[in-house]
Design the sequence.
């Protein structure tokens, strides 16, 4: 492996000159981003600006067309033989939860640790219950996803990702499919996770959350990173016109 | 059963868009679905022995026997129907389910075995069972190979003792009983799958 052979020793993700196209449409154009170990990044921008595409490239759910992505010392490419070696270390939480509806909550959390990490049933169960407790939903462990509220399902999804003990967590608008009264319980869980020192990249428009935990806000528009700053600076005095427009729209 | 397993394989081949093979499978399924079962039975009974004979080099037909013909034909025929059911079921699974599996680093094999196929089978089980009921009724077609199924047995008996009407009535009742038992099964499966919280 190329582990730590190049670049900053303390960075877990390095994206260089990334280009991603869908047919003739360029979704990402020359994107550069470095995520340091322990860093929390909030990614925002208007709809269609490429936020989802960027984080989906980081765990190779989308394949990029040009540029480099190095995750945990391993470069992602079409020729790589072991994508799952990278994906093991990268947890992801989706807007639409994507829990497995035919498995109970605890089984959702046990599946990957058993199949991928090779944990025994007992160990996987213990780990799952521990993390479900952490997201305060262990009392629902034997229910099915369809029997839970959206906020509960999203917390299960977070626990499921954490059960793989990832080195970094990616969130793609984890609260935007939720009813307003459930947003807080999910954000609280994420804040707690941040305070435990997890490395996080979150696509979200929850500015209160960004203020509280982000080390850096990255603003994207039309497939490029337009502005990067600490949250205080970004919200108080955005440098670019586009960021000002965007902030005007989401705060109204 | 054989049909179901084979059908699932056929559906997966199409789903993965395996080059060439995928097209072949599609053609096979279309062919099987457009010709009547009885024709397939005949083909198998008369043509395959000849083909086998040629392959064997002797040029003389190798008979495969009526029972085997029936088994193989039903297996192949049903596989085409089941594969359609499974294929549609696969397409109905949300893309997010595949992505969640990718994000969890599950292998393709585990993805299908533990996550995708269980959902497809659950959703498709009522249709699969209905198809199986039809298959059961179709078994009466094997009389063309002078094999004896339920109906065949009855008509032989009827001719022996001359009580045609009664015999056919009894048989109708037996078919009805088995089919409705299976339908009951379908209904209870539907109910169970509702309890699993799979509304959406
Ligand atoms: N699979 C795809 N095929 C074709 N075009 C796509 C695909 N996925 C995304 N796009 C396009 O790429 C662009 C960026 O999409 P992306 O989902 O990354 O935006 P986003 O910033 O996450 O927006 P949103 O806030 O709406 O989620 C959009 O214009 C979208 O239409
Ligand atoms: Mg998005």
Sequence:
């Amino acid at each position: 492996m190329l582990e730590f052979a190049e670049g900053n020793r303390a960075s877990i993700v390095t994206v260089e000159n990334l280009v991603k196209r869908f047919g003739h449409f360029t979704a990402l154009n020359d994107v550069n981003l470095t995520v340091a170990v322990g860093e929390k990044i909030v990614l925002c921008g208007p709809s269609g600006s490429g936020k989802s595409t960027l984080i989906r490239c980081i765990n190779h759910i989308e394949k990029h067309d040009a540029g480099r992505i190095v995750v945990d010392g391993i470069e992602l490419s079409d020729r790589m033989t072991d994508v799952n070696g990278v994906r093991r270390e990268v947890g992801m939480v989706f807007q639409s939860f994507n829990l497995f509806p035919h498995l109970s909550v605890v089984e959702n959390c046990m599946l990957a640790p058993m199949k991928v990490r090779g944990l025994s049933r007992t160990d996987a169960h213990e780990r799952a219950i521990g993390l479900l407790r952490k997201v305060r939903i262990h009392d629902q462990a034997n229910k099915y996803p369809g029997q839970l509220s959206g906020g509960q399902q999203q917390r299960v999804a977070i626990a499921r990702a954490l059960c793989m003990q990832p080195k970094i967590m990616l969130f793609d608008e984890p609260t935007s499919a939720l009813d307003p009264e459930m947003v807080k319980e999910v954000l609280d869980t994420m804040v707690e996770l941040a305070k435990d020192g997890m490395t996080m990249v979150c696509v979200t428009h929850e500015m209160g959350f960004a203020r509280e935990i982000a080390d850096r806000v990255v603003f994207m528009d039309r497939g490029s990173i337009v502005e990067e700053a600490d949250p205080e600076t970004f919200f108080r005095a955005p440098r670019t016109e586009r960021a000002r427009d965007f902030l005007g729209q989401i705060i109204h | 059963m054989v049909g179901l397993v084979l059908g699932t394989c056929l559906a997966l081949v199409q789903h993965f868009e395996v080059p060439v093979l995928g097209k072949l499978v599609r053609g096979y399924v279309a062919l099987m679905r457009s010709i009547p079962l009885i024709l397939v039975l005949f083909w198998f009974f008369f043509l395959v022995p000849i083909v086998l004979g040629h392959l064997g080099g002797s040029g003389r037909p190798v008979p495969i026997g009526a029972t085997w013909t029936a088994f193989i034909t039903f297996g192949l025929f049903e596989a085409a129907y089941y594969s359609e059911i499974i294929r549609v079921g696969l397409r109905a699974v949300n893309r997010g389910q595949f992505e969640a599996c990718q994000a969890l680093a599950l292998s393709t094999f585990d993805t299908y075995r533990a996550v995708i196929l269980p959902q497809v089978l659950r959703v498709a089980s009522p249709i699969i069972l209905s198809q199986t009921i039809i298959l059961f009724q179709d078994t009466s077609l094997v009389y063309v190979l002078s094999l004896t199924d339920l109906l065949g047995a009855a008509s032989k008996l009827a001719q022996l003792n001359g009580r045609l009407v009664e015999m056919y009535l009894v048989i109708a009742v037996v078919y009805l009983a088995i089919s409705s038992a299976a339908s009951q099964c379908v209904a209870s499966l539907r109910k169970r799958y509702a309890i699993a919280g799979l509304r959406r």
In short: The interface with chain A takes residues 94, 96-97, 99-100, 102-107, 110, 114-115, 118-119, 122, 196-200 of chain B (CB under 8 Å). The mean pLDDT of chain B is 74.
